[in-house]
Design goal:
Elements: E1 5-9, H1 16-26, H2 31-40, E2 52-58, E3 61-70, E4 79-87, H3 96-109, E5 114-117, H4 122-130, E6 134-138, E7 141-146
Bound molecules: coenzyme A (COA).
Coenzyme A binds near residues 86, 98, 121 and 124.
Length: about 150
């Protein structure tokens, strides 16, 4: 199924993002709303050096999204942050999340020495650990990956 996914860098949010954010909200994940709010008010469009936001589509439909910011919580230079990663429930465990996060990590190698993230779910922790991230003991991050 993975070969039916396409991956692109997002330069503008289309209405499909509202649909994905609604699905996320129905599971009590608010971070896709945060993504949309901050993109629209211009405070975070993942457009600073080294940053990017990615969309995964299948048959033209947005099914997953996630991105790379400079880590705003870390003063250490060269630290990126994986952010706002969400896969539509119906397509989970089909490799979309892996495709997305591997693209984020590849991009991060150009600009960062480490990427960090915070996940609040056991599912998220198992997912990131399957991709090579290790747990870290920090108030602003649960996982990190040295690049
Ligand atoms: C976490 C999430 C991004 C994973 O996306 P996904 O497309 O299902 O992940 P993949 O299919 O690429 O999984 C890659 C590997 O991660 C691990 N993994 C993923 N989901 C898992 C789960 N629920 N339990 C255990 N391992 C899991 C597996 O090793 C998996 O490989 P496998 O399917 O070959 O065993 C997705 O479940 C999601 O969006 N959840 C809601 C939002 C969320 O929790 N985001 C995390 C950051 S807050």
């Amino acid at each position: 199924m993975k070969d039916r996914f396409t991956l692109d860098v997002v330069d503008a949010l289309d209405p499909e993002f509202d649909r994905l954010a609604k699905l996320a909200r129905s599971e009590d994940f608010r971070f896709m709303d945060t993504l949309i709010d901050r993109w629209r008010d211009g405070s975070n469009r993942f457009d600073q050096p080294g940053e990017a936001y990615f969309a995964v589509r299948r048959d033209g439909r947005l099914i997953a999204a996630g991105g790379l910011n400079r880590d705003p919580y870390c003063q250490e230079p060269g630290t990126g942050r994986v952010r706002h990663v969400y896969v539509e429930p119906d397509v989970r465990r089909s490799g979309a999340g892996r495709l997305l996060v591997e693209a984020i990590v590849d991009r991060a190698r150009d600009a960062f020495k480490i990427v960090r993230l915070r996940t609040q779910t056991q599912r998220g922790a198992l997912f990131y650990e399957a991709l090579g991230f290790v747990r870290c003991d920090d108030p602003t991050a649960t996982h990190r990956l040295a690049l």
